[in-house]
């Protein structure tokens, strides 16, 4: 495992660093309600059962692979680095959250969910449909019209449903977590019209690469894994009286779709955008919400 120099500058203006985005993601995790459960009251019995099972699994790996003292100490250093770089939200959402989501989704109906990830921020601009997400005057990227309907399980339109949408820019960077991008860029909360329809104008995001200058990137490099997620839109889709769906939508034919490092793709969550004469690509998707 490669060694990381913790004395690297923590924040270089206008350069995205693992430590800076990790600090933002950690602060967001601690303050934003969407991650609540962080304060969940868990019984002694349950902590005993799950924590003991985790430790037993670790012991089994050490025994099976005859992990040595130097390897144990290198792993300890790496775990300390993940904490110091604020990369626990990133690491856990990339490598673990999909398993938790798969358990949760067993009892769910309607549009498939997938992982939330570390880059959600609440309180974005409220926009009526048709809407255009806030973007920079110089925003680069293929124009995208994302459109569709929100209905209940019986196909009845849900007027006043909300799509809380956020996505990376054409460099794969998120506002609020990378320097030099205005707050709220490529984020918004869009309400459906009387027929449950929405129209959202934005640009196509680029694939996302795990930061290469932090401990998560170091592990990925040391293990020879891919550091990429396919391009995606993040969404929280909700309506009064209905369960909010946390999901992501991907792009057919896009890079990394078959080997998402976060294992968060599902065949039902792939958009098939069509080219229009104006140069804008149009992607349609209908959401189905179950009652809360
Ligand atoms: C992302 O953009 C993301 O969506 C997830 C789940 C993890 C890391 C970065
Ligand atoms: Fe993402």
TrEMBL record:
Any Pfam family: Dioxygenase_C
- Taking every annotated instance into account, which residue ranges of this chain make up the domain Intradiol ring-cleavage dioxygenases? 146-174
Q: Which residues cross the membrane?
A: none
**The protein's required cofactors:** Fe(3+)
Q: Which InterPro entries match?
A: 1_2-CTD_multi_dom, Catechol_dOase_N, Cchol_dOase_actb, Intradiol_dOase_C, Intradiol_dOase_core, Intradiol_RC_Dioxygenase
Gene Ontology MF terms in the entry: catechol 1,2-dioxygenase activity; ferric iron binding
Which GO terms fall under biological process for this protein? Answer: catechol-containing compound metabolic process
Provide this UniProt record's keywords sorted from A to Z: Dioxygenase, Iron, Metal-binding, Oxidoreductase
Gene3D superfamilies hit by this protein: Aromatic compound dioxygenase, Catechol 1,2-dioxygenase multimerisation domain-like
Q: Which NCBIfam families match?
A: catachol_actin
Concerning its family, UniProt says: Belongs to the intradiol ring-cleavage dioxygenase family.
Spell out the protein name for this chain. Answer: Catechol 1,2-dioxygenase
Q: Which organism is it from?
A: Quadrisphaera granulorum
């Amino acid at each position: 495992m490669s060694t990381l120099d913790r004395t690297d500058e923590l924040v270089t203006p206008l350069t995205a660093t693992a430590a800076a985005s990790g600090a933002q993601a950690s602060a967001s995790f601690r303050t934003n309600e969407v991650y609540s459960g962080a304060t969940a009251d868990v019984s002694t019995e349950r902590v005993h059962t799950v924590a003991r099972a985790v430790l037993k699994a670790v012991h089994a790996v050490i025994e099976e692979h005859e992990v040595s003292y130097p390897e144990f100490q290198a792993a300890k250093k790496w775990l300390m680095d993940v904490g110091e770089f604020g990369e626990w939200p990133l690491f856990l959402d990339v490598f673990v959250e999909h398993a938790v989501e798969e358990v949760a989704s067993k009892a769910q109906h309607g549009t498939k969910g997938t992982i939330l990830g570390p880059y959600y921020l609440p309180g974005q601009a409220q926009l009526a449909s048709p809407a255009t997400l806030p973007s920079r005057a110089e925003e680069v990227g293929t124009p995208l019209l994302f459109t569709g309907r929100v209905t209940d399980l019986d196909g009845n339109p849900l007027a006043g449903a909300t799509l809380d949408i956020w996505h990376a820019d054409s460099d794969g960077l998120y506002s609020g977590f990378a320097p030099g991008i205005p707050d709220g860029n490529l984020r918004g909360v869009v309400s459906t019209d009387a027929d449950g329809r929405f129209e959202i104008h934005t640009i196509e995001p680029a694939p996302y690469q795990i930061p290469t200058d932090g401990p998560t990137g170091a592990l990925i490099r040391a293990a020879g894994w891919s550091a990429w997620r396919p391009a995606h839109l993040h969404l929280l889709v909700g309506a009064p009286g209905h369960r909010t769906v946390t999901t992501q939508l991907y792009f057919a034919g896009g890079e990394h779709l078959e080997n998402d490092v976060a294992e968060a793709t599902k065949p039902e969550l792939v958009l098939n955008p069509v080219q229009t004469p104006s140069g804008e690509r149009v992607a349609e998707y209908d959401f189905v919400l179950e009652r809360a």
